[in-house]
Amino acid sequence: MNNKNNSLDRLARVTAYICGVPLGAIINKYRFQNTFSQKIRFARTLFQYVALELGYDRIQIGKFLGLKNLDARPLKRLQHTYDDSERIKLLVKQAYKKQIIYLAGKVSNSSYEHVIEKFAKAEEELIRNGYIVINPTSLIPEEVGWELAMRTLVPYLSYCDAICLLPDWEESEGAKIEYDLAKKLGLEIIFFKT
Q: What is the distance between the alpha carbons of residues 24 and 97, in angstroms, rounded to a whole number?
């Protein structure tokens, strides 16, 4: 895969994350027959719009999306259909300049207040260093069981450029799974130092 495709891949991941849709919804021709379809159409159109503004041509974008012809009509309707499209477009462009990083560490068998504090401190430092941080403790309530938490959190790695492992990560089965998956996905591995 060349650099242009890697950059489009990154833009697709950022757009999917900001819009709250599965990555596959942008890079595949999904056809949903439910209320989620409008959100997906918006995300796909937003991806195309931002890619054009970043200097990609329609042929590059179409090839990346597996389309024979990139239809410009949805792009023209984007601003007329969604009141906050300009704000979201700006958010995607800003996020595109930053790395998305997933925070991993030991959660189980510790005081939840201590876990929240530990993850929050790491998140604050990573944000100060210019990252967009996916903090699992802000996504999953304390009461959720391990299996459901892992099923919910693992897909977030597909949006990320890197994983940040807290010092206690090797004591966590979940963090070890996240680390193994991050390695297989080619994410940058960062070891957090306190």
A: 22
Would you tell me how many other CB atoms lie within 10 Å of the CB of residue 184? 9
DSSP the chain: --HHHHHHHHHHHHHHHHHT--HHHHHS-----STHHHHHHHHHHHHHHHHHHTT--HHHHHHHHT-SS--SHHHHHHHHH-TTHHHHHHHHHHHHTS-EEEEE---TTS-HHHHHHHHHHHHHHHHHTT-EEE-GGGTS-TTS-HHHHHHHHGGGGGG-SEEEE-TTGGG-HHHHHHHHHHHHTT-EEEE---
Asked whether residue 91 falls in the same domain as residue 20, the answer is yes
Structural domain boundaries enclosing 18: 8-96
Q: Is the pTM of this model over 0.90?
A: no
Predicted confidence at residue 116, as pLDDT, reads: 94
Residues of the chain with pLDDT under 50: 1-2, 32-33, 35
Q: Which of the listed residues 96, 130, 145 is the one where a domain comes to its end?
A: 96
Q: Judge whether 14 and 27 are in contact, CB under 8 Å.
A: no
CA distance 160 to 126: 14
Over the stretch 40-65, which tens digit does the pLDDT of each residue have?
Answer: 888 888 898 899 889 998 888 888 88
